[in-house]
Write a structure and sequence with these properties.
This protein has 528 residues and is an alpha/beta fold. It has 2 domains: 240 residues, Aldehyde Dehydrogenase, Chain A, domain 1 (3-Layer(aba) Sandwich), CATH 3.40.605; 178 residues, Aldehyde Dehydrogenase, Chain A, domain 2 (3-Layer(aba) Sandwich). It has 13 helices and 19 strands. Helix 2 packs antiparallel against helix 4 and helix 4 packs parallel to helix 5. The N terminus is likely disordered.
Length: 528
């Protein structure tokens, strides 16, 4: 959502309705300033969009919405593939990667892979749109006791997309949310992220040009910038849904704003919390291997992954915290954090965890100069992990806790104290570990995805993927921001009763012009 490259923008939000990881811009220029995280140097500025200009962009999106809604999934798929091709044009790709590296310090190797991922995501959502089963087209012919009924998913309308700081391509203005909304037939108005405003602007220009050349209507995609623009996006009557990837503070602020409208709209905010890892009693025999993997996962991308494992629960007597500390010192990870705010919050978060009862086991400087914070492993007594404690709140960055549980009852109690999360892992002694099933069953109600003998920092864009989780990890626990089901967020079902064939949506007409799989009189029919 990448991680192999993965997910989203996370981190403390100082901008309450912006979703960004940087403090709101208060300079008289009214612009988002781009910075180099390696040095803090200002790289340039992107003018903020006024409220009137945001409404104009949204008005164009609203005008385009009816056209997108009746355009065939195959044609929309063509638009997405054209956008993917435009991103991967060699000169364009090289220029975008260099710009992204200057603004994020994530490294050209990582960013080259992430750009390839976003192009692949666009093509994947094109394939999902064209396959058509997400429309759930259903026809029940009239009988002696019932009327003719047809049911199909209909696009909601313009979607406001708030992208991520930590994945400027895969979860940025052209990431999963934008791709899945367009695939579902909804126009998108994206907000440029203040952690990479120059890249956001460049991607916006590329998208507008590529989609227009491919035949998409004007208004299918728009871009705005600035803190106030984010609030206007959510409050506007033109906006039909909001998709957000970021911190809990920012996501909840958007959710509250959307629910204060005269006509509330859904907010699909993917925020994340502390993703737990459970080491079984048998798995403790390979503690050194698990410790290495845990360090690699929680420091990947300098700890700026929403699926970062933040808490390792190990059997009593395993001395797991010391093993993880040694693994961290041996790994000596390097890198910078995306913004000054994230770096400061990571360092402050360690101090808060210590004040709440944790003890620093090992600490390694991540980088010299710029926006950096030390990678840190802390230990904590399992008894201190109680609901409402700072110990169970996310510390975004290369920071993780280790606790030891006495027995199955204490493990069950501790897991019961945790907030809903995006993902969890179980580390076992192997396929025959007798404790695996119980651990999986214990964690499944808490998260959107459970991995066994695998780490959660990796979100594939596939048909079976679930990238969401119970509140407060997301505002919509049944939804996913990655995978084929991501389209479901931006549609709603409408039933048509006794409607003449010529007046029906194309998906329900007798000749099935979009060649969709449909359920007719209870039986699934798949076109050859």
């Amino acid at each position: 959502m990448v991680h192999q490259l993965t997910t989203r923008a996370e981190g403390p939000d100082h901008a309450p309705v912006d979703g960004s990881d940087a403090a709101p811009d208060t300079t008289p220029t009214g612009s988002d300033t781009s910075h180099d995280p390696r040095t803090g140097e200002a790289l340039g500025e992107v003018p903020c969009t006024s409220s009137a200009e945001v409404e104009t962009v949204l008005s164009r999106a609203a005008d385009a919405a009816p056209t997108l809604a009746v355009t065939s999934p195959a044609e929309r798929a063509g638009w997405l593939r054209a956008l993917a091709d435009a991103l991967e044009a060699p000169d364009t790709a090289n220029r975008l990667v260099a710009l992204a590296d200057r603004e994020t310090a994530l490294g050209e190797v990582r960013l080259t892979g992430e750009l390839a991922r976003v192009a692949a995501q666009l093509r994947f959502y094109a394939d999902v749109a064209q396959e058509g089963s997400w429309l759930r087209a259903t026809v029940d012919h009239a009988t002696a006791t019932t009327r003719w009924l047809g049911r199909v998913q209909q696009p909601l309308g313009p979607v406001a997309v708030f992208g991520a700081s930590n994945f400027p391509f895969a979860f940025g203005v052209l990431g999963n949310d934008t791709a899945s909304a367009l695939a579902a037939g909804c126009p998108v108005v994206a907000k440029a992220h203040p952690a990479h405003p120059l890249l956001s602007a460049e991607l916006g220009r590329l998208a507008t040009g590529a989609l227009g050349e491919a035949g998409a209507p004007a208004g299918a995609f728009g871009l705005v910038a600035g803190f106030s623009a984010g609030a206007t996006l959510v409050a506007s009557l033109h906006t039909a849904a909001v998709a957000f990837t970021g911190s809990q503070q920012g996501g909840l602020a958007l959710w509250q704003l959307a629910n204060q409208r005269d006509v509330p709209v859904p907010v699909f905010a993917e925020m994340g919390t502390v993703n737990p890892v459970v080491l079984t009693a048998g798995g403790a025999a390979r503690l050194a291997q698990v410790a290495d993997g845990f360090v690699g996962s929680f420091t990947l991308g300098t700890g700026q992954f929403c699926t970062k494992p933040g808490l390792l629960l190990a059997p009593a007597g395993s001395n797991a915290a010391a093993a993880v500390g040694l693994a961290l010192e041996a790994a000596a990870p390097r890198g910078w954090l995306l913004t000054d705010g994230i770096a400061r919050a990571a360092s402050a978060g360690v101090e808060e965890l210590v004040a709440a009862g944790a003890r620093v086991v090992a600490q390694v400087p991540m980088a010299d100069g710029g926006w950096a914070a030390p990678a840190t492993v802390l230990s904590v007594p399992a008894a201190a992990l109680v609901r409402g404690s700072r110990l169970l709140e996310e510390c975004f960055g290369p920071v993780a806790l280790v606790a030891e549980y006495a027995d199955a009852d204490e493990l069950r109690h501790v897991v019961g104290q945790l907030q809903g999360a995006l993902a969890a892992s179980v580390m076992t002694a192997g396929p025959d570990d007798p404790d695996t099933a119980a651990a999986v069953s214990l964690l499944a109600p808490l998260v959107g995805r459970v991995a066994v003998d695998d780490w959660p920092t990796g979100v594939a864009w596939t048909w079976a993927q679930q990238h969401g989780g119970p509140w407060p990890a997301t505002t919509a626990p049944w939804a996913t921001s990655v995978g084929a089901a991501a389209l479901d967020r931006f549609t709603r079902p409408v039933a048509f009763q006794s409607v003449p064939d010529a007046a029906l949506p194309a998906a329900l007409r007798a000749d099935n012009p979009w060649h969709l799989p449909r359920r007719v009189d209870g039986r699934l029919e798949v076109p050859s």
